[in-house]
Design a protein that fits this description.
Its EC number is 3.4.21.89. The chain has 263 residues and is mainly beta. The chain is built from 1 helix and 15 strands. The longest helix is centred in the first third of the chain and has 29 residues.
Length: 263
């Protein structure tokens, strides 16, 4: 007959094994299939809002060392690689600061990309832009960092309505999405011509005047061109969205964003 001490030791060992296998399965799921991602900033409004919670499809582009937590996958380049498409909303590892960023991929290898008077030009041609009213939100602190939104109709008092002009942008190939404008003549509205190198991509935020992206050199806090190896996956669908300071404040969840497709 087992002693009380033996039973306690056996129970502790079973708990350890259960936790180990749970962590292993979670780690494999996160590495191979889907990675959770919470939107921390407003650079992708109104496609993605601060507090949106989504899973990143890691099967979409294959796997690189950045597919593993902390960049620990033991290989270079990509395996089972697939090319992203223009217009995809992608999550990638920042080439310098090692953070995960989310932006829209607008430039493919060999493309030229330029902003002229707030209009995106790809390979010398302006993309189609159609007015789509205004994006409105309440002027108050958003998310755990407590950022205030930037407003085209500034100044706006606490609790007032903050608006930004919205257009529907159609990229070469036919993919369409909303983009926002905060101010005209901002330095991000007019850029040099960028030629995307082989093995790299050009990304931008949909909230065009409030996004550190490929328009900005890494030395200036931007992203620069994103190496293919740094792609982690594609954002396909929002699972739920919290308008409060924490995902766990369920009373602040946005009822119209459950399982919303990312377009």
């Amino acid at each position: 007959m087992a002693s009380k001490g033996d039973k306690q030791e056996s129970g502790l060992w079973e708990t350890v094994k259960t936790v180990f296998w749970a962590l292993l399965i979670a780690g494999v799921f996160r590495t191979v299939f889907f990675q959770p991602f919470w939107i921390p900033s407003g650079s992708m409004k109104d496609t993605l809002l601060i507090g949106d919670f989504l899973f990143v499809n890691k099967m979409a582009y294959g796997y690189s060392r950045y597919s593993c937590p902390f960049g620990l996958c033991p290989f270079d380049g990509r395996i089972l690689a697939s090319d992203p498409e223009r217009g995809d909303v992608v999550v990638f590892r920042h080439p310098v600061n090692n953070s995960d960023f989310i932006k829209r991929l607008v430039g493919l290898p060999g493309d030229t990309v330029q902003m002229r008077d707030g209009v995106l030009h790809i390979n010398g041609a302006a993309v189609q832009m159609e007015p789509a009213g205004a994006f409105a939100e309440t002027y108050r602190k958003q998310g755990p960092m407590g950022y205030y939104p930037q407003c085209e109709n500034a100044p706006v008092g606490e609790g007032g309505t903050c608006t930004k002009s919205r257009h529907i942008e159609t990229l070469p190939g036919g993919r369409s999405h909303a983009v926002l404008n905060i101010r005209d003549g901002f330095f991000s509205d007019n850029t040099p011509v960028f030629t995307v190198p082989e093995g790299h991509y050009f990304v931008m935020g949909d909230n065009r005047d409030n996004s550190q992206d490929s328009r900005y050199a890494r030395a200036n806090g931007g992203v620069g061109f994103v190496p293919a190896e740094n792609l982690i996956g594609r954002a396909d669908r929002i699972m739920f969205s919290s308008a409060g300071r924490s995902l766990f404040f369920v009373w602040t969840w946005r009822g119209d964003r459950f399982f919303k497709a990312v377009e």
